[in-house]
Design brief:
two-stranded antiparallel ribbon
Amino acid sequence: MNITPLVWLITIAVTIAFFVYEFFAHVRKPHEPTIGESARWSAFYIGLALLFGVGIGMVSGWTYGGEYFAGYLTEKALSIDNLFVFLIVMTSFAVPKIYQQKVLMIGIVIALIMRGAFIAVGAALIENFTWVFYLFGALLLYLAYRQAFAHGESNPADGRFMRAARRVLPVSDQYNGDRLTVVNDGRRFVTPMLLVIVAIGFVDLIFAVDSIPAIYGLTNEAYIVFTANAFALMGLRQLFFLIGGLLERLVYLAQGLAVILAFIGVKLLIHALHKNELPFINGGEPITVIPEIPIWLSLLFIAGTIAVATVASLVKTRGDRVRETPVVADEISRGADAP
């Protein structure tokens, strides 16, 4: 792709404009979004992302279009997993629902900034050091293992980082609207709202480590990496309120993401072998015995894995509810029959 500095500037300016509009139109006045509002805006942002992908395919070729769609699907799935952790954080801090929009908006903006920094660093590394594909591939395989077997074991709101923050910062006991600090008896305290934002920023840093190597396993184009991330984050706030109850039912989402990360990790390692310059591997010569995984296969695999994980999750949670219903009914019946 030949992306000029002007195209980059326009893309970044439009992205910033969308988030500024989001803040002034929806977030500045605290309220809990309705299902209708969330559904309309979620559909708008998803439709916009799909149209942008079609535009890339028509202008730059469908190889790049396929890379964008594979990257967008991967980043959207990782972002939904991110939402699940946001939900845990806000539940732990008991954030009032009317202020959850603001917390989500700030968290999403922090995520975009951090991912932008990681994208720039990743692009520089890939351009100058081909061995970084080995590093990214190994990192994704480790993250896949962690995602599959360590998901949900800790609460980010009660981790060592947040306990240290509480020791350093004077924290008030109650929220004061959506303010970050408050003055009591002549002394300034930070409110729990600031701690929530700090916790979500820390979570964003961790997820950026997951997401950027993953999408660089699907494309080497920094422009596609940035736009796929930007569109995956746009509308994420509305999606949170639209599928809030569904998040807890996606019990196999972590395992599905682990499979995707492992697949991309293997893809990166194969690509690293094809670009090999390390002298202690095959004398510094490329290894092309194993064919590279084409982007169309990556796209199908990612979409299929997300679909299977979603359907399996819903089937399991529905089955669990059906099994629990007779038990609850029996307990109610025995209670009614008791003298």
